[in-house]
Amino acid sequence: MSTDRLIIFDTTLRDGEQSPGASMTREEKVRIAKALERLRVDVIEAGFPAASPGDFQSVQAVARAVQESRICGLARANDADIDRAGEAIQPAAQGRIHTFIATSPIHMERKLQLSPDQVVEQAVRAVKRARQYCDDVEFSPEDAGRSEPDFLCRILEAVIDAGASTVNIPDTVGYAVPEQFGALIADLRNRVPNADKAVWSVHCHNDLGLAVANSLAAVLNGARQVECTINGLGERAGNASLEEIVMAVRTRQDVFPCDTRIETREIVPCSRLVANITGFTVQPNKAVVGANAFAHESGIHQDGVLKHRETYEIMRAEDVGWHTNRMVLGKHSGRNAFRSRLRELGVEFESESHLNEAFARFKELADKKHDIFDEDLQALVTEASQELEQEALRLLSLRVCSETGERPCARVTLEFNGDERTVDAEGGGPVDAAFKAIDSVVQSGTQLVLYSVNSITTGTDAQGEVTVRLERAGRVVNGQGSDTDIVIASAKAYVNALNRLLTAGQRKHPQAEGV
């Protein structure tokens, strides 16, 4: 039995949100945070409080909503960021401040324009200031993979002496390879005199597809915290995937001298929720949470699994949440059953009117499909919250015509800034015609860079979930819509994306600064 605990630090709400178009509302962040709490994640990095008032409020809301997981706020190594993070996590039952500063020669010289001595001084001051707000302080030397090992040893020793209880080594640009990265962790732990006074952590990016491998190599060399995200979400090629880290360690206990406290049966539900809210769907062949992860088409494989599951399956599908934790609701289900199931899924309604609106949507859906699963409920709540979030543009009705030999056409009725308009358009297909009709009203000047359709559940009456990604003048937004009719779901998604694009102001992302 493993004696060491591997701490799982989830940064879906912070680094994951830095994926282009993956911005989440405060309510959506709270829903995901509650799902992460059910997953028994040790630390939830809820955001970067100094990035914007919205980020500050989101971190504070997550800190109030979550009791079992530790809530962390990210801060650059300066007084203003530290103070903002300290204030944001103040309501948390357990709080942490994660502060960082760049340590590679190119970053110190070109970005910070500071000498190595000044960088050490600033890092130490930041850790000491963070300790005024909480006892749990994490420090990261940004771009550690390209930093000089001697300087890393110097600054890590200094911040541990200053009170950092966790030191995190990020592969910020995804440049490392497993053998080299594991050796770096071992070397630092051996050379830093007070290494035993802190938990060693890693944060790996996936630019070369090696984030999980690098993280696991670090674990084998003494790291006892891994920073990761649900579905590997994150900027550029993403981060180390939480589900892959957890199941690799759990499945190969003969190799890893540690284990996590993750409730693995919550992995798939959490994965589906994050995909639903962010619009970043999971590819079918994704390990652990992809639709094909436990599918066997080869006759030889099917025969082997039927005779003895372990011939071709190293994990049980039900152990990671496939086909479990589902209460099927239908048209005869009452308001109390609806409210109770959503509460179990971490959804609380702000008012009775919000509950009534969501319940009315549920009844409409129940008239269209026989069984309603958890995934349907999550999509329903996401769509309802999107409409409460912004109402510059509303889809009132849609009629499309598509037949062999005729050019498809669409008639759309919209409410735009309080005015109702009905427009007609033709297109290469019914979806294209609907989009052209909508855009003729808004005149958005956007470019459609992604159109994706995904079935929420199985069956011919399943809801289709559509994601569209729009770009205009460098700003990227995602929109989601769901319906049993794919064309209607597509129109909903397009309207949702346009609303986000039309929303005044743009939340500032700390992409250029983050680890």
Summarize the structure.
The chain is α/β, with parallel strands linked by helices and 515 residues long. The chain has helices at residues 26-38, 53-65, 79-88, 105-112, 116-131, 149-162, 178-191, 211-220, 242-251, 267-278, 299-307, 335-344, 352-368, 374-389, 430-442, 486-502, and strands spanning 4-5, 7-10, 43-47, 70-76, 95-102, 137-142, 166-171, 199-204, 225-228, 258-259, 393-401, 409-416, 419-426, 447-455, 464-472, 475-483.
Task: Provide structural commentary.
It is a single chain. The protein has 515 residues and is of the alpha/beta class. It is globular. Strands 2-3-4-5-6-7-8-9 form an eight-stranded parallel β-barrel, surrounded by eight helices. A three-stranded antiparallel β-sheet has the order 11-12-13. A three-stranded antiparallel β-sheet has the order 14-15-16. It has three domains: 4-278, Aldolase class I (TIM Barrel); 335-386; 391-502, Double Stranded RNA Binding Domain (2-Layer Sandwich). Helices cover 39% and strands 20% of the residues. The model is unreliable at 296-309 and 504-514 (pLDDT under 50).
Which helices and strands, and how do they pair?
Blueprint: E1 4-5, E2 7-10, H1 26-38, E3 43-47, H2 53-65, E4 70-76, H3 79-88, E5 95-102, H4 105-112, H5 116-131, E6 137-142, H6 149-162, E7 166-171, H7 178-191, E8 199-204, H8 211-220, E9 225-228, H9 242-251, E10 258-259, H10 267-278, H11 299-307, H12 335-344, H13 352-368, H14 374-389, E11 393-401, E12 409-416, E13 419-426, H15 430-442, E14 447-455, E15 464-472, E16 475-483, H16 486-502
Parallel strand pairs: 1-10, 2-3, 2-9, 3-4, 4-5, 5-6, 6-7, 7-8, 8-9
Antiparallel strand pairs: 11-12, 12-13, 14-15, 15-16
Helix pairs in contact: 1-2, 1-10, 2-3, 5-6, 7-8, 10-14, 13-14, 15-16
